[in-house]
Amino acid sequence: MVSRSYSNLLDLNSGDSPTFGRLGKKLSRVATVAGVLTELDDETCCSVGSDAPSSISQERMIIVGNQLPLRAHRRSDSDGGWNFSWDEDSLLLQLKNGLGEDVEVIYVGSLREEIDPNEQDDVAQTLLETFKCVPAFIPPDLFSKFYHGFCKQQLWPLFHYMLPLSPDLGGRFDRSLWQAYVSVNKIFADKVMEVISPDDDFVWVHDYHLMVLPTFLRKRFNRVKLGFFLHSPFPSSEIYRTLPVRDELLRALLNSDLIGFHTFDYARHFLSCCSRMLGLSYQSKRGYIGLEYYGRTVSIKILPVGIHMGQLQSVLDLSDTEAKVAELKAQFKGQTVLLGVDDMDIFKGISLKLLAFEQLLIQHPDKRGKVVLVQIANPARGRGRDVQEVQSETCATVRKINQTFGRPGYDPVVLIDTPLQFYERIAYYVISECCLVTAVRDGMNLIPYEYIICRQGNEKLDDSLGLNPSVPKKSMLVVSEFIGCSPSLSGAIRVNPWNIDSVAEAMHSALIVAEAEKQLRHEKHYRYVSTHDVAYWSRSFLQDLERACRDHVRRRCWGIGFGLGFRVIALDPNFRKLSVEHIVSAYKRTKSRAILLDYDGTMILQSSISMSPNTDVVGILNNLCRDPKNVVFLVSGKDRKTLTEWFSSCEKLGVAAEHGYFVRPNHEVDWETCVAVPDFYWKQIAEPVMKLYTETTDGSTIETKESALVWNYQYADPDFGSCQAKELLDHLESVLANEPVSVKSGQHLVEVKPQGVNKGLVAERLLLTTQQKGMLPDFVLCIGDDRSDEDMFEVIMSAKGGPSLSPVAEVFACSVGRKPSKAKYYLEDTTDILRMLQGLATASELSARSVSRTSQPVIIDRE
């Protein structure tokens, strides 16, 4: 397969396409020299929707992660080349099991080892041919700024709720590190572009190292099928909003089609950030959560990752594992083992766990000599002074506990801070009565899952432990409330790791729980973990990604914005920009015209301090109304008194107030109502309820109209206001269930109004009036900017071909801005709307002058 992208920007300049095949030819290296790319680079690269359909029928997934699932070793022979092998512990490799044999998988990522530039081409070719891996070679200094700098000093602490209040507490924001982060993400994007077939392939990006990668890919291929999964926590908005590049990261993630999180809490925090910082709201429909983002629906998936059952079972079957289990059983004979397995970093709470165990020995002296805490401390993934402090504090605490409570042949705490083989760690799981995972903040953490499977064991291990295979297995878990796997382990004892007394008591409870209870808890956990493994997780993610990308082909896409503010607007294929020349031409050749104009947000900006019309707006409206071929109606949510004052000089203008409840064909006649409402006694029921919510929701107000009541929470806290709006909606629907009113929610508001009142009534009335006069409009223009105007669009569009319009009528339903709508046309903003209307008004003026000249009498002088 030949890629449809260019592997090097130099190829783009020369007009030559690279000629490498899927596996047969060498790949050129992209941006592997030292340097920094800013987020404004690559502006010259064209954004495309898609190219010619691919001939490849096999489904393909491109998995992108910070590191390839490979191990590399320098050979000791004379040529000094490299040996590569799969890293069986890598999640990126394990998830392949759930994608199915018919899905081809290609990996894109960096290598742990530094490869000499002279060897990079050969290594890249070898990895592509042998492993279907595409390596991104990052210069060491750039990689250090990217990984150890921005990722580990800024993103990782912040996502674990650590604010840089001082230079010692996490890294202060450094613009050069951010530029390095963007630069590396760009290198990864270029590598994906080397192998992607944009119409066929799915791309799955993993974790916080590559959060801006979706923007680069979406910019190059507007319809790319792109999923992202975050393996770390996502912090609350109060924490996340302190990040100087918060909007850039959010918008970059929203260039994905599907964004995955381990828990609802993480997803909720992300959605809250989108609401508070970008003004985006989400909807839940049929079990799926989605964000509407410029016409695209960005789906949210919540599913914790699982473990690789096959790998664990194979290690459990090893003779080495059996021998190690027997050794540990002898070592801890007559003692109950509590087990902790953690990385040596500040968020794993090792010291707090040790202090809780010390408290257990103080409060329960009978446990001394009988209970041992084995703490396996894996090397930290980061580096810095905080890691050294954790190491020294841990060692000091272990020494203190052992000196205080130890005796010959008994150390209460066994600290293992040297690397263990996987089978050795498995053996510790097998012989431990309880596993303690008390991190103060962690992403998923699969240690409890591994422990549960290992406690299930097998026949060989049962023999080594002297267990009866027919007796149900047992296990106990003490887990922190602040780790991602906690919600899925309903039988675990959940603790606040900061509460040392509570953790100590949980340890004691785990030791004294009845055997039958331990068996029930283990059975429950084993059933969940064994069925929700890594294959289940990856298969579920791919299914949701396919569903999220289902409509890509039939959507028209435009790329807008610069740098990391780039986004794609996806619209119905029949939705297009209204050409001013086209509508003016249609306007000139028609004889009976109906014009419907929304006011708020269409004729004037919603954000304007003064909402009253300016002289330009009034002048355009008057010029349109003077044309005898036109019937012009202005529709607004404002009350009739305000509209009367604002448009008193527009004598021939038809006006509809309060979304169509009040209508006035021109200035000379009185206001009429479109819907007969005998009285508004329901206001006496609704208003006290609204007042109650206004008093408890700071920033909310009540707007009282003649026909409606509106509760507005535009200036309230977004999350609390939205929550209160849902409660108010339910409350009002309940108390007004038997009243002739409709209760609806809108953008930052809840409205109660008489049933049947909407802007569509105005359109129906206008068409009916012209039909009764024997006038069938052959030109209809309807313009609006929000959801309330969709009723007008629906009436106008459905009238085509009906008795109320001329058979040759030209209908222009136009929205303000490119967004999903029942309208078939759009103009960008209010300025474009007024420019177009001015063009129509000018055409009317020129027509009037022409008629005036031709109607003047001709005088002949006979002298």
How many domains make up the 3D coordinates? 4
Q: Kindly state the percentage of residues in helix.
A: 25-40%
The Rg value, from CA coordinates, equals 34 Å
Helix/strand-derived category reads alpha/beta
Q: What would you give as the CATH superfamily of the largest domain?
A: Glycogen Phosphorylase B
Most strands sheet = 9 strands, mixed
Query: Which descriptor suits the 3D outline?
Result: elongated
Assign the CATH topology of the largest domain. Answer: Rossmann fold
Low-confidence stretches: 1-56
Termini gap: 92 Å
Number of helical elements: 27
Average pLDDT for all residues: 86
**Binned strand content:** 15-25%
Q: So what's the CATH class of the largest domain?
A: Alpha Beta
Across the major sheet, the strand order is 5-4-1-6-7-8-11-10-9
The count of β-strands is 32
Q: What CATH architecture label of the largest domain applies?
A: 3-Layer(aba) Sandwich
Describe the model.
The chain has 4 domains: 60-302, 3-Layer(aba) Sandwich (Rossmann fold), CATH 3.40.50.2000; 310-532, Glycogen Phosphorylase B (Rossmann fold); 576-675 and 759-850, 3-Layer(aba) Sandwich (Rossmann fold); 681-754, Hypothetical Protein Ta0175, Chain: A, domain 2. Helix 26 (790-798) links the parallel strand 30 and strand 31 (810-816). It is built from 27 helices and 32 strands. It has a 9-stranded mixed beta sheet with strand order 5-4-1-6-7-8-11-10-9, with helices on both faces. Strands 20-32-31-30-21-22-23-24-25 form a 9-stranded mixed beta sheet, with helices on both faces. 39% of the residues lie in helices and 19% in strands. It is an alpha/beta fold. Residues 1-56 have low confidence and may be disordered. Helix 14 crosses helix 15, helix 21 packs across helix 27 and helix 25 runs parallel beside helix 26 (790-798).
